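Hi W.,

Here's what went into the run:
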Amino acid sequence: MTGDDLVIETEALTKRFRRRTALNECSLSVPRGRIAALVGPNGAGKTTLLRLLAGLSKPSEGGISVFGKEMSTMNVELRARVGYLDQDRPLYPWWRVREILEFGRRINPAWDTEFATRHLSRLDIDLESRVRDLSGGQRAQVALAVCFAKRPELILLDEPASALDPVARQDLLHDITELFADNESSVLMATHAIDDVAAICDYVIILSQSRVVLSEDLDYVLESHRFLSRGLDDGVPVPRGATVLQELRTTREVTYLVRLAMPLERDGWRIERPTFNEIAIAYLRDQHRSTPAKSEFGEEAGATP
Amino acid sequence: MSNHPTIVFHLDTRSDRPPFRQLVDQVAGAFERGQLRVGDQLPSVREVVRQITINPNTVHRAYRELEHLGLVEGRLGLGTFVVEAVESAPREYRAQSWRDTLREGVAQARSSGVGDDDIVLGLQSLLSSDAEVRS
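Here's what came out:
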């Protein structure tokens, strides 16, 4: 992949606050034209990373490149090409939706009122209603429409569907895909709802303990992980090129969730495909893993009794 | 011509099948059941995105795969259509999953201690008994 195809590239990005390191030597890239998910537990550094990418805060160390250019808090022109939606979705409760759009038009050069109006009318949201009279789901939809109305080339969403009931959540995810389809942009969406990722994302980054543990195409993630099972007495070593993420034992059988680096030699193993949910949980649980390449070959894992 | 789409996709987010493969399976399945016929137009990517919650890239990828399998044809500026070649294509498509199933079966037999010779014998007896049923 060449640099031209990437919207985001970070190199050993580190962010320290007074007492703690929120992001530790984080190197990742996001290809153009995707809805990418940024997955990780609370406190993993997701918000810190998004704010750095939006040019809203300064890194302690390392570099951030957005559209191949160095992002900084001073780069107004580059920042204008990036949309950022805070997880608190800040909207003044007494403002009317129409007033929000009017305000947006005045402060953003590339503002597209027609785009926002069309989207909100499709959702039956009255432009004359005040924010405080909207439901939580509608507020989230207005905030999202405002974010897209800047017509940014990169959209950063921080937990866009948090605190919404299941129907509002589904509606919002649907909005994201529709706006994405209309806008020809790239999206990076922080979430800890793994089901949301499988629903709309096609690229996944998993952050754990302030580090990147996975950064890949969702289809590839599904194709490169397998459950391997065998009887405890069979003594078959874990295949070459398989990294064990998780081990489950019964009285007579052992099952490994493995990441495959090469096609599998099937001998002696019962093979099943894991869901994205199962894969993601295994990475998020694996607290001691520092990089995904830690035990690239199976000898180490195969030696377990 | 009705306003209803020729096919409505659904996505199982808890499936182990990659999303684009789920769509490919659904088109092949609809054709086998006769719900989709030669000349039918598949909904545009934009229409699918409006109908269900799905990443447009996933639909693009599924349509590309279907074209590759010879099930559909993209006509510039017109849309994506089910084509004549579809009569033979699903068989080929099924053949791939058939091999996968067989491979899993062999792996299962081996892991339960069945030798390769016995697997071949078992398969032969299965085929001959099936041949009797057919004739």
